[in-house]
Amino acid sequence: MEIFQFDFMLRAFAAGIAIAIIAPLIGVFLVVKRYSLMADTLAHVSLAGVALGLLTNIHPLAVTVLATVLASIGIEKLRERRRIFGESALALFLSASLAFAVVLISAVRGFNADLFGVLFGSISTVALTDLYLIGILSAGIIALMLVFYKELFFVSFDEELAQASGVNSRAFNLLIVIMAAVIIAISIRIIGILLIGALMVIPVMTAMQFARSFKQTVILSMLFSLSSVIAGLFASFYLNLASGGTIVLISALIFIISLAIKK
Known about the structure:
- By secondary structure, this protein is mostly helical.
- The protein has one domain (2-198): ABC transporter involved in vitamin B12 uptake, BtuC.
- 79% of the residues lie in helices and 0% in strands.
- It has helices at 7-32, 37-56, 60-80, 86-107, 113-120, 128-147, 149-157, 159-164, 169-187, 196-207, 214-238, 243-262.
- Helix 3 runs antiparallel to helix 9 (169-187).
- It is globular.
């Protein structure tokens, strides 16, 4: 097929498949914890990280990973100390990071091609170094999920009971938000900053229409996410559309179909 004759599309498919697996893998924990807005908040933080990387001529992906991880730690620390409500902490970081990003963008003379691709996703911008970093971080996240699956499951459903049972709920809550931060940072090349939150949440919502257990929800959400990413990359290539928007629209369409089937 013509699409597989281009190196940039091969890189896009490799990165997209990795993201399609790990995004709902963490998204399901965020949805269960009623923390879905975390994805959007960290996405806005990642915009500031990309702008900072472009301004300082440091690899934008590396700066973005660092910025989102630090922000996720800050949000979780504020939430667990109960100085402000969790939703308020998210709103604070979302607004402040967006304002910081706007200032940095103005410093680099407006929205150039790199920033536009980061906002809405661009399949042609996935470099080989990005692919290596995505592969390493994805493998690390999957390994952590396999090792600590029971603890993460327990903490997500009942944090207080997990703490009373001897599980370090603070540490595992922090692990969830850090993994979410890493996923968002490495996904922006394919999905885009403004849309990555949807890919972490919509496949999970679709899976919940059919799944009868938590494990089924995880598996089905990954299958729906993979279907959306692969179909979206094909459509974006042949129809000359933005990859991120196409992937999320297909994911939303699958969710609407699932509602009709469920009804």
